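Worked Example 4.2. Consider the chain below.
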Amino acid sequence: MAESSPADRHTVLATAAFGGLLLVAAVLVIVDAARLPATSAVVGPAAVPLPVGVALGMVGAGLLVHARRTLPTAGTGTPWQPRAGLRVLGLVAALVGFALLLPLLGYVVSSTALFVAAALLLGAPRDWRVAAWGWALAAAVFLVFDRLIGLTLPAGPWGF
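Applying the procedure from the previous section yields the following structure tokens:
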């Protein structure tokens, strides 16, 4: 097996910072979920935020542990990839476009476009499967939240 090169110190520190942010977000989500009023419904209002907060905390803790283990062997290298700033601007533009198109085109179409744009900007192969995965993911989220849980998502002119 080929030996991999040591991780870049900037990347390890960024991983640790992101893990810390995820832990803070987890605490906020869990505290807010705990403050939601109890109901007699089978699935209460904290049914989704509480496990999401726990998952955020687990991922954040995992990132911090990984960064702690990797930092002593991390080397110095080039911290930026070519055109990284342009990709970040592209992702911000995709998010703004999503927010603007959501009320017009609905959740599934807008989310599919956001997924495709983000995947392509982050280096996914340019083929039909990116759009298919984006649509499948957006449709599944729409079905779960809109149809099963009852949270109304913008349907757009096509009803989805």
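Residues 84-149 form one domain. The two ends are 48 Å apart (CA to CA). Compare this with Example 4.1 before moving on.
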